[in-house]
Hints:
- By secondary structure, the chain is an alpha+beta fold.
- It has a domain at 8-119: 2,3-Dihydroxybiphenyl 1,2-Dioxygenase, domain 1 (Roll).
- Helices cover 17% and strands 44% of the residues.
- α1 (18-29) packs antiparallel against α4.
- The termini are far apart.
- It holds the Pfam family Glyoxalase.
Amino acid sequence: MQNANGTPIWYExxxxxxxxxxxxxxxxxxxxxxxxxxxxxxDYRIVESTEDGIAGLMKAEGAxxxxxxxxxAADVDDDAARVSELGGTVHMGPMDIPNVGxxxxxxxxxxxxxxxxxxxxxxxxxxxxxxxxGHGAWNELVTPDQDAAFxxxxxxxxxxxxxVMPMGEAGDYTFIDHDGSMLGAMMNTNGNTPKARWQTYFxxxxxxxxxxxxTENGGxxxxxxxxxxxxxxxxxxxxxxxxxxxxxxxxxx
Length: 253
């Protein structure tokens, strides 16, 4: 059974240096990697965690923007048309990826990039499995207009506004409800993040060990560790190339 529409089913890092990215993320998360079959010409690597493919590393070509992308389960052709109707922009596709699925690359009305995807396999994706180390744990949209964002994604995927956590001058941190579970949250753009974007957080077994691994392997600690509701701790970081990535986990010491 495939994942419900609006569920994150894949993550992808577009990077100018896949070898350096491999080393960094392996040190922090324990990920392993493999090359896909099918004779793909570009440099693409499958990220594996707990023997599941949960993400990809793709070498950036030309002016491709660097950073993490989230792929959401969708009826790709219909939903790509809906993206345009709702004020977003489809930049690529819909098109097939041989032996993988159908996808489209889009931006929401505020300019945050994301992808629509439907895999050819009936097996559900485990990319977003918040309690499993190495897997996607949280999806955070930074946007200048949360009302407009909820209107867009609510119409597209059926997401609903969940509980609100006031953040003082930073505004509200509003949880995203998806079929009764929390997929992530929305927050306002700010001086540190002036452009709309999706921010991905991955689960780690020990947040302090992950923090040390980030700084020891060329990354930068931006914020944290900070405790969040439920008892976990999060860190916000950038990898050696400067791409934002977050990690969430327990404090063991």
